[in-house]
Design a protein that fits this description.
Radius of gyration: 29 Å
CATH superfamily of the largest domain: Transferase(Phosphotransferase) domain 1
Strand content: 15-25%
Distance between the termini: 64 Å
CATH architecture of the largest domain: Orthogonal Bundle
Oligomer: single chain
Structural class: alpha/beta
Amino acid sequence: MLVVGVVIVLVSAVDAMGQRRAAFGVMREAVVLAVLALAAAASSSAGAEVLPSPADEVEALLTIRAALRDPDNFLGSWVVTSSDDPCSWMWVTCSAEGLVSELELGNKNLSGRLSPAIGKLRQLQNLFLDHNAISGPIPDTIGGLPLLKKLDLSNNQFNGTIPHTLGDLKDLYYVKLSHNRLSGFIPEPLINSDSLFILDLSFNNLSGTVSEFRIKNVFLDGNPLLRYPSCGARCDSLNAQEEITVPSQDQRTHSQSFATSTKTVLFCMTITFVVVVFLAIVAAATRQWRRRHQIFADIDDKKDSEVFVGHVKRYTLKDIKEATNNFNPNNILGQGGFGIVYKAILHDGTIAAVKRLKEFVSAGEVQFYTEVEVISLVVHRNLLSLIGFCSEDNERLLVYPYMLNGTVSSKLQAYVSGRPALDWPRRKKIALGTARGLAYLHEQCDTKIIHRDIKASNILLDEFFEAIVADFGLVKLMGQGETHVFSAIRGTFGRIAPEYLMKGESSEKTDVFAYGLLLIELITGRKTLDVHDDDHPNGMVDWARELLEKDELSSFVDKRLQNNYNTAELKEMVQIALLCTMFSPAHRPRMSEIIRMLEGYGSVAERWEGLKDVPIPVPMPGASNFAPSPANYICDEDECNSVELEAVELSGPR
């Protein structure tokens, strides 16, 4: 039935191709549908398997931990609790069914051996153990994981042979076993696999002769005993080892004829491939051009304000001036580094907020394009939506829903009927809502989005005090497979993660660091995170750690709350904030893990105990590190949405 279904899809595509004369687009749709059909069939067959219980997976993970050496106690949270829930353990990701789907143990200074118990994690899809010092053989049981997609065991000390069973995994498309001590032949199932996309076996001790792989992305450098004629310069010593024979005349004639035919076929295939790639590039570029120019096309000759682009409306400058009473200063809601926000009443009576970007600011122009493109694509209840925009002359304006309760920063200082506007339950709700919005950007968007300016003044509150993440002008996009990106340092001084300050390296963990500082804002209610105390060089984070160790957090919490808070919840929130602001990005949790902690499903205390004593790296003498200069920070933190900071040489991380 599956084959019939795929054939019907392809036949329909060919028929449509003749009718619509859109060969490339239809071909692509047909391939996508076919792949989806195959994936659905594979999922159905995998779904028939009896799933393991969480208790079975706990036992397997404990066995795996016991076989590894963990000097830095990265696996300290892998202990049996009353709930037996491995989903709350560090470096473990679970599926919707509550079963382990990913182990992210790369670069954790692990050694020892990988236990065959790994094969008991039957729902495991991704296994990352790269950049450790794990030795011994690769367990054959890995080849029995039916849903495995990504396997990265590179940069370890694995020895022995490659398990033959890996080539039998139908969902496996990424295998990286490079920089190990593997020996023996490459298993035939891997050589003949057509499901793999990347196979990296470079820098091992593999041997034997391989005629040809079915896939193209194969890396075999650094295997001097391996004979693979097609690898060319990457295996420079291989061709010299081949035995030279003199063919007969008939053999030469036959070989020449065959070679000629082969060259003809290869030439035709190459031309076809080039044409297809060219058409794909043109199509992608055209879509991008149309998307941007459709949004930002000149409409000076159009007087109708009812112009829509998708679900986003384009307003005229006249509309905005009428809505804001010609940008009346009395309508100002707030202002920041890139512009001023006005309260507006649209022609249909809707109350809105209009952000007016400053004129002739190139960074503001970039922010405008970024904010329109990103916010018009992401939809989540904890992310600010975009009603419309205006781009005329030198004006760049963004129209948002009006948030009745303003910003978290302003509400932390407000009182209602003699009580703080944000009581403890509301602060917890804000923390959870913000985490959910960031988790959507980091883990659920097809292209990962980094916000890069998380703080209380950029979190809005609707009429129900639901947290709404705003100000997307500094976002950075990360492609599939990217772990971080490099860029100029942007953001708010005092809230930028150390790796971003020193190296310009940002990732989703950069947002996690800033989120930890937001939690401290919610706990303390302070407008600034500096304590102006020489005894606490790291400011509020250092002070929080000290008070936590002394069990004196009552001195840390906002006095406005007057002891109206849950002591256990306060301790957990402080621990989460400290985990988020760890020096190393690898030690910080993901936003999805933070959500589980805030919801009470994560072992926060155990995780903190496992990491609290991890030392902060000390810079080498004479080493240069870079950070933004306070001298270039010309506006108050609570008044500025974001500033571009220059880098100056500092003595090193604190």
